[in-house]
Amino acid sequence: MNSNALRAYDQVSRTTLSGPEIEAAALTKAAIKLKSCQDNWHADGRDSELDNALKFNQRMWSIFQGELEREDNPLQKEVRRDVLRLSAFVDKRILEIMAYPDPEKLTAIISINQNIAAGLRQRPMADDYSNLRL
Description:
This protein is mainly alpha-helical.
């Protein structure tokens, strides 16, 4: 696919996806970036790619943290608390990887991103839960 087609697809997907689908797509993109670094650990330019992937993850999780801390967030307090704790782990792991890079340390963040993305993609059965977002 050429770059114009990719940009067009990206633009359409941004305007047609729901909130949870956008969040799932961002988590998946973050996991893919980290997995690429892990799979190409000894490649030239790895440090730059790793820095980019870690910063992308850090920004994304910071946005989630801000949303979770809002009083009007529709998630139950216990769920928000648990995801905030998980985000604190992700933050700590990202900083650890920045200080002491190791491809095995990426596995936990990749797995967390993939699992939350999978959960966000599931369509709730009850209409009452249709607006739940991280």
